[in-house]
Amino acid sequence: MILGHLKSVVREFYDPATGDTMELGSSGRQLKGKRFYIIKNLFELLFKTDFCNEPTRVCLLDYSLRPSDVYKEMYISSGIKLNQRTCINKIAYCEKKIEKNLGSNIIVDVVDFTTRDIDVYYDRVNLLLTKYKKDSVFDNIYDLDINSILPSEKEVSNERLEALCDKIRPYLKVEKEKVLSDLDEEALGYLKYLYSLDETIDDRKLMIKAMIGLDL
How far, in Å, CA of 21 to CA of 8, rounded? Predict the structure, then answer.
């Protein structure tokens, strides 16, 4: 089962004190290139997002801890009371979830055998990480509310990508910062004044709305 494989790789390459992934494992094995980033992102997915439940995380961090004893460890370490059967079921559920989303051989293929094709695991882990991370790096580069659109590995043409990037480029936060650093503040002050006027008695308000691009 994948739980045992995960416990082994966590023990060898994960530092729970810092949350860092080590390129050189405790057994002397080394993670290089894409293999390192797969395991690094896998650890982030397991320990720093909501993809995994807490009993499973506790179980993974202690190589010798059996699922049937996790409820005891959680009570001792954090005072959280869980029924033993509930705890076991949560771990079993999470284990099936990991296998369904990442495959049962991810650790064997990525860590144990260095000649196997691992591109599929790279894509799977990255897709899940971008889905479950609460602070999406991509969403933060635009001044747009696009958090509800989830990452997808369904390919689209370069033409569609370029058209999308052109459309949302004005909303890049770096573009916004450029605009703010080079504003004609005197003109902006007058613009705000004109916009505050009552358009039913002052045509200048209508003129300003047209300049801005708002419906009249």
Answer: 14
Give the type of residue at 71. Y
CA distance 36 to 24: 10
Q: How far apart are CA 213 and CA 132, in angstroms?
A: 38
Q: What is the pTM of this model?
A: 0.72
Strand partners, 30: 24
Taking the C-alpha atoms of residue 132 and residue 128, their distance in angstroms, rounded to an integer, is: 6
DSSP per position, 60-100: HH-TT--GGGHHHHHHHHH-----HHHHHHHHHHHHHHHHH
Summarize pLDDT for 37-54 with one digit per residue, the tens: 999 999 999 999 999 999
Q: What is the pLDDT of residues 116-154, one digit of tens each?
A: 889 999 999 998 988 888 666 676 788 888 877 777 778
Question: Which of these, 117, 165, 108, 118, lies nearest to 141 by C-alpha position?
Answer: 165
Gap between the Cα atoms of 99 and 74, Å rounded:
24
